[in-house]
Amino acid sequence: MPAINFFEEDISFKPKQKAQLRRWIKDTIVAEGFKLKELNYIFCSDAYLLQINQQYLDHDTYTDIVTFDNSEVEGDIVGDIFISIDRIRENGAKFKTGEADELHRVIIHGALHLLGYTDKSAVTKQKMTQKEDEYLAKRDF
After folding, report:
1. Which of 13, 65, 94, 126 is most buried when burial is the number of CB atoms within 10 A of its CB?
2. Which residues define the annotated binding site?
3. Whole-prediction pTM
4. 69 to each of 19, 23, 85, 101, how far by Cα in Å?
5. Residue 16 DSSP SS3
C-alpha cells in the first residue's frame, strides 16, 4: 500500500491539510511516470538537519532539505526527506513567499529529487525550479 508519512524530530510541527498534501505529492509522482511505494517527510530543526548534513553528506552548512533515495526497484519511489522548519520559516520571510508556500516548494523539491531531478548546475537548477513551479501551480488547496 503506497504511503506518504509525516514525522517530526526534535520539534513540534504538523503540516496542515495532510490529505490534500498527500494527494498532490502522489499526483506529482504519478505524472512523472513513477510509482509511489513509501515516502517519509521528517520535519526537524536546523541543528538536527545540520547534523545529518555533516554525518551523511560531509557538508558543514545549514540547508532546508536533505533527501535520501531508498528505492531498490527502478520506477518505484521509496525515500526519506528531512526538512528544516527553521529554514522554511526564515526563507518564507526572506523571499516573501510565506511559510506554507515555502514548505510546499521544499516538499515538492524533495519529491523531484527522488524523481531524478538535480540542482547541481545552473541548467539543472533551472529545470528543477521550472518543475517546482509547474507542480506548485497544480495545487488546488
Report:
1. 65
2. 109, 113, 119
3. 0.96
4. 23, 20, 21, 24
5. coil
The model's pLDDT over 7-56, given as tens digits with 9 standing for 90+, comes to 999 999 999 999 999 999 999 999 999 999 999 999 999 999 999 999 99
**Side chain identity, residue 5:** N
Cell numbers for 36: 509511489
The domain tally of the chain equals 1
CATH of the domain at 92: 3.40.390.30
Please provide the DSSP assignment of 19-82 as one string. Answer: HHHHHHHHHHHHHTT-EEEEEEEEEE-HHHHHHHHHHHH---S--SEEEEE---STTEEEEEEE
Binding site per annotation, positions for Zn(2+) = 109, 113, 119
The set of cell numbers assigned to 45 is 530543526
Residue 117: CB atoms within 10 A of its CB come to 18
Are the C-beta atoms of residues 103 and 15 closer than 8 Å to each other? yes
* Owning domain of residue 15: 3-138
